[in-house]
Each structure stands twice: as structure tokens, then as C-alpha cells.
Amino acid sequence: MNTKQYYLFFFTLLIFSCKEKNTTTANTNYCQNIQRDSSTSLSSALEEIQPLMKEKTGVYVLEDGGSAMVTRAWLCENAEKSIDIQYFIFSTDNIGLIACDYLVRAADRGVKVRLLIDDIMVDAGFNDILTLDSHENIDIKIYNPGVNLGKNLFQKIGKFATDFRSANQRMHNKTFIVDDQIVITGGRNIADEYFDYDHEYNFRDRDILLLGKETKKANASFATFWESNLSISATKLVKELPKNIADTNRFSKLHEYACNPENFWPQVRSKIKKLPQTFKDLKNSDNLVWTDSISFVSDFPGKNDGESGLGGGGITTSKLIKLVKKAKSTVDIQTPYLITSELSKNLFKEAVKRGVKVRILTNSLASTDNVEAFSSYQTDRKELLQTGIRIFEFRPDAAERVKIMTGELQEELDYKPIFGLHAKSMVIDGKTTVIGTFNLDPRSANLNTECITIIHSKKIADNVLKGMEEEFKPENSWETTLNFNPDSKVSVYKRVKTWTRKVLPKDIL
């Protein structure tokens, strides 16, 4: 997430408008050769583990973007009852359009689709949103509207000027729930760069897939947000509906775009078709861990009562503080943005005094997508290092990107895109893992609603730590000390730009 977007509102959600995409010609039907395998279903894939799912929760970490994308696509293709989606960003790019295509096709089969998106990242395109919502099996709601969608620049500025705290309270939760049985949650939004699909800049990110018992809490959280008075149906935000609402062919361009091999590579579709066997192998693998020691934790809509101004914390904030306070030997953290308060600095300082080794990997100035957040971190970096923690900054040319980058993209390009860090994870004492949406910054702590999954499993911790240890290595990150930082690796222009952002208040970053 780029904080600059909170001020400029340039990110759009046109859902499935193809007018700026490489659309197909009228007499080309790429979809005729793509058939869904109707012999498979989610219930049949889960049948043999249903008894286990009633008693425990299966946990599988999705490290690379390709797997995270293919898994979502296969789940959409095999959903039988419902798909509930909650995201901060749902982009109109390649991945977003293809995701919409899968949702429409699922809805055509009778699957009930509910899509909840935060208003701050939606810009115009109301007709496209309403057209998607017009499907009898698709409902779209916008969280905390009034700051962006359907508003002109003066109305947006007026909202921030007259109701600053409310305007800054955003829904940062990310959940993808299928048939009330499977949940994907973690750092990824729906956009090219979160699935290693972008040709210029991608994120190193992490999701977690949950099967079984603990998914009930994710379902309950989604229901709470969906039914909240902060979540408003898209149709209630406009005075009139678009003219093409009754057009029986209104989704045809979307389908053709998604079927076009230039937009969605055939190799990826092959992986989706093979997923039933892959899923079977997954169920029998050591990487799927069954546990009854797991908690899905979510803030409530609105976060807190606002009595502390822009502060106040939340449920996820309190949980994370308690975990760090209980740490006995190690705390390893990955966070794209590292903006600390006196509370968090003291929290780390006290941990170090207890003998806890604290390591944090965050973005360098060279890898960050958010110079506003980096500017604040840069100001406090020396003081933070003086607490005794170790800080590593992700390299934009990290060697690790070759391993995690979508294979099809590597085949397509003769160069490697820049990578930035977007994973929000923590491992405590080598046995407790936290994967979620929480950035280590005041916005996540006090304003944005967040969700995290806490897993008490040595096996999961070992697997996540294995990836973290790779990324702490010199070929993937620079260790910043009191005598060295890698800020000089970027242009003078970017350094000056970062310096000018120091005027922004830390509380909203």
C-alpha cells in the first residue's frame, strides 16, 4: 500500500472495463477451447478429510504468487455454494479482470458471490462496478464510503478536512472464503504485483490457507463486516443504474479478455487443471499442518471508539503486543513499513533487555513503493537501532526473487522486475507464527482494521523461518547499522523526494 494514494486517489477499481486493455476482436472466440472440468468439486476434494476438519485446522503457507493465484482460481472454479471476498485493493489490471471472470463464471453456476472493498482505493468506474453487481448472484458493498467513490476532488478534500479520523479509518482486512470451509488470508491484495505478474515491480508476499475448524472465525468476521452499517451496497451510492444492466451479453468482453492467451497464459490454466492432483498431494504432504492451537483474529469495523484521537489500538494490536511481551528468545519480523511509536520502541527495547534477539526485515529506500512511510522510518532509524534490535532492508535485486517469481513471467521476460517486500509476518521463539495484514506502523495499530492468524506450530514456524533466513542473507538484504545504511543506492531525486515527505504526520502513515 502506498500512502501517497491516500492523498492523490489515483488508484482505480473499474472491475472489468476492458477499454484500456488488449481486448479481442469481435470474431475471435478464445473461450471456445476452454472448458471447466465438471467432474471435480470442492466437496469431493475435501471428502476424505472432512472428519479431521471438524476437529482441527489445516494450515498451508502460500509463499509464491503463482501458487497463491492458481489456488484462488481453482477454488473459484470448484466452489459450490459461496465465495466471500474482502480486500483493501481489488485492481482493474490483468489479475483483477481475470479474477472477475472467475467470479462471474462461478455466479453463472449458482454460486453466491459477495465482494466487500474499501472505498479509499475505488476511483470512478461506478458503471462497471454496478454491472458486475447486476448479476443475480453477485453482491458488492463498499466499506466506509464518502471519501472517494462518486465524489469529486473538492468533496474528497472536504471529507478529510471535516471528519479526518473517520476518513482515515480503512478496512485493510484480506480474506478469500469459499463454501465456508476454506480461507485464504494474508498480505496479498488482488493486483498484478501481488502475484508476481507485473513486468516492472512485484511484491515478496505471503498468504496462509486454512481448512476446517478455525475458518468459522473468519466466516464470522466477514459476516460482521458485511452487516456493518459502514458497509454500503454499491447500488445505494448512485442515483441511477447504467443502461447496459439488462444486456444479456454484458460480460462477454470480460470473458474474452480472460480467455485470451496473451492475458492469461495457457501454462497457468494447465496448472489450475492439475490442481486436483496437486491438492491431493498437498493433503498428504508435511507442509499441510493440522493443529488445534491456532487463532484467527480480526478487528471490528470502525477499529476503536476514537477517544484517543488517532490512537486507540485494536484487538490485533493488543494480541501482537502480548506476543512480543511473552517472547523468551527470538522475535523475527517481516514488515514492508517500519514506523515506530514510543510504545513499540519501548516494547523492543524491553525485549532486548530480557535477552530476546529481535530481527526485522523491511524495505530499503531502493525497494519501497512508499517513500512517505520510508521517510518516517528513516527519521527514527538510528533511535530504533539503539534499542538493540537488528534491522535488515530488502534489496530490489534480491536473488530470492528468481525462486519466488511466477515461472511463466520468467519465461516471458528477458530481465527481472524489481521486488519489494509486502509480507507481514512474525515468528516468536521459533515456534509461534503470525501471518496477516498488519504492517508495523501507526495506521495498522490504530486506524485500519486488520486480521492476523496466530499458529502455535514448530513445523509451520520452521518453514516460515527457512524463508526468512534466506531473505536475511546479504544477497537478499542489506543489514543497516549505526554506521551504514543503503540509502545511497538510489538516485538523488528519490532521496530528496523522501526528505520532503518528513512533514507528514506519523500517525496517518
Please bin the fraction of helical residues: 25-40%
Order of strands, widest sheet? 9-4-3-2-5-6-8-1-10
Number of strands: 19
Which percent range describes the beta-strand content?
Answer: 15-25%
Number of helices: 19
Mean pLDDT: 87
Main β sheet profile: 9 strands, mixed
How widely separated are the two ends? Answer: 10 Å
Work out the radius of gyration: 22 Å
Structural class: alpha+beta
Low-confidence stretches: 1-27
Shape: globular
Protein described:
- The N and C termini lie close together (10 Å).
- The protein is globular.
- The chain has 19 helices and 19 strands.
- It has 509 residues and is an alpha+beta fold.
- The chain has helices at residues 5-8, 42-46, 50-55, 65-78, 94-108, 126-133, 153-162, 164-168, 215-227, 252-259, 266-283, 315-326, 342-353, 371-385, 401-404, 407-412, 442-447, 458-472, 492-500; strands at 57-62, 82-87, 112-118, 138-143, 175-178, 182-186, 201-204, 207-212, 231-233, 289-291, 294-298, 330-334, 357-363, 390-394, 418-421, 425-428, 432-436, 451-456, 477-480.
- Helix 4 packs parallel to helix 5, helix 4 (65-78) packs across helix 11 and helix 5 (94-108) packs across helix 10 (252-259).
- Strands 9-4-3-2-5-6-8-1-10 form a 9-stranded mixed β-sheet, sandwiched between helices. The chain has an 8-stranded mixed β-sheet with strand order 11-18-17-16-12-13-14-19, sandwiched between helices.
